[in-house]
Design brief:
Layout (H helix, E strand, L loop, with lengths): L3 E4 L3 H12 L4 E4 L11 E3 L5 E3 L6 E3 L2 H8 L4 E3 L4 E5 L2 E5 L3 H7 L2 H15 L4 E2 L1 H4 L5 H23 L8 H4 L4 E2 L11 E5 L3 H9 L4 E4 L8 E3 L3 E3 L2 E2 L3 E4 L3 H4 L9 E11 L9 E4 L7 E4 H5 L7 E10 L10 E2 L3 H14 L5 E3 L11 H17 L2
Parallel strand pairs: 1-2, 1-16, 2-12, 7-18, 16-22
Antiparallel strand pairs: 3-4, 5-11, 6-11, 7-8, 9-10, 13-14, 14-15, 17-20, 17-21, 18-19, 19-20
Helix pairs in contact: 1-12, 3-4
The chain binds flavin-adenine dinucleotide and uridine-5'-diphosphate.
Length: 382
Amino acid sequence: MFDYIIVGSGFAGSVCARSLADAGKRVLVLERRPHIGGNAYDCTDENGILIHKYGPHIFHTNEKRVYEYLSRFTEWRKYDHEVLAKAGELEFPVPFNLNSLYKVFSAKKAEMLEKKLISAYGPQKKVPIGEMRESTDDDIRELAEFVYNNVFLHYTMKQWGQKPEEIDPATTARVPVFISRDNRYFQDEYQGMPLYGYTPMFERMLDHKNITVKCSVNADAYLKFEDKIIFENEIFEGKVIYTGALDELFGYCYGALPYRTLDFGFEHHDVTYYQSHGTVNYTVDEPYTRITEYKYLTGQEMEGSTTIMKEFSRSYRPETEDIPYYAIINDENNSLYQKYLSKAKEYENLLLLGRLAEYKYYNMDKIVSLALQLCDTLTEEK
Ligand code: FAD
Ligand code: UDP
């Protein structure tokens, strides 16, 4: 029999499964998709190009423990992600930085702004756009308006259907103005891509005698949430780690939690490279937010052949085939989530973990970190 049943085989489910299995626990993983890896799943397309089926995933972390844990299951390819913004005729690095200044303004004006930014915030500082818009310096405020209009406003409208000031400030603060000449999208100490891809990393993680994985099965085929959690017609005495959406688990009884979903437009082109950077953000026009060319991320070499992907964001429709990608964090949605959380707490052996189950905007490394912490606690318990 199983000590743990884990719903979902993304980072949350797979890291828990392996950590618990290593501690001698018997684990069943239930995954509704026909494959493991959650949204980080990658595979080759019909042209032999390695793609990320659910959007571009670049690994980055400052947590040594997270990096070392994953390094048990993969080697790494060094990759520093750089993103170019296209704003009409203008092209410049994002996050908007000192190099961007010189791309869009005359040298004289850029020099003046550089000096002002360094004296106002200090070198290497990251300043959220909302904060910069409130500067008391007229030149800095004018720059902030430029960045707001050319980086954030239209992209955020496409991505969230709302203006930057209407969404959770932590979201735009992910891409601050950076008082630096560093063009990398992330400054974390460890960053890169699993050398052979994410899926082989997950395969190795889940390859353990104590782990049974069942793909293409919805959790509700095995688990019933009645007064107690029922598994194969009996009360389940072990623990369930659930990494799916909480509203779905409880039949949307309080109403659906709002999410944004994405439509992915994959295109194959008979050229060696389609664009100059791994990702190009379309920050003022085009209906899509960004185009990613996977060969830059994966390092795959192939003459005269490449695959790109456009991301189109829209509202998620519950109880359809739509995939909930981004929780829409605001007070109203958080309080709806709290209702589901209270219901979940009625089950003493139900644990929630992950981007969906916690209704949070987590990067991969955060999930790995939380999964390891949870398993520390669980394996310390008798
Ligand atoms: P998921 O990966 O969503 O896994 C949950 C799994 O549970 C899924 O496989 C799902 O099928 C399964 N499941 C759900 N309900 C059920 C059920 N009832 N029965 C059976 N199975 C079920 N993070 C980064 O660090 N770097 C990036 O570059 C990055 N890029 C991203 C790009 C996009 C477009 C998106 C949407 C996210 C990105 N992320 C990135 C975030 C990253 O995807 C998440 O942090 C990570 O995938 C979360 O892992 P998880 O296990 O919580 O969820
Ligand atoms: N953002 C923007 N313009 C950009 C990049 C980001 O307006 O060129 C805003 C947008 O609201 C986006 C948020 O910053 O949703 C976070 O961007 P990030 O690239 O971290 O998003 P993710 O990769 O998680 O989709």
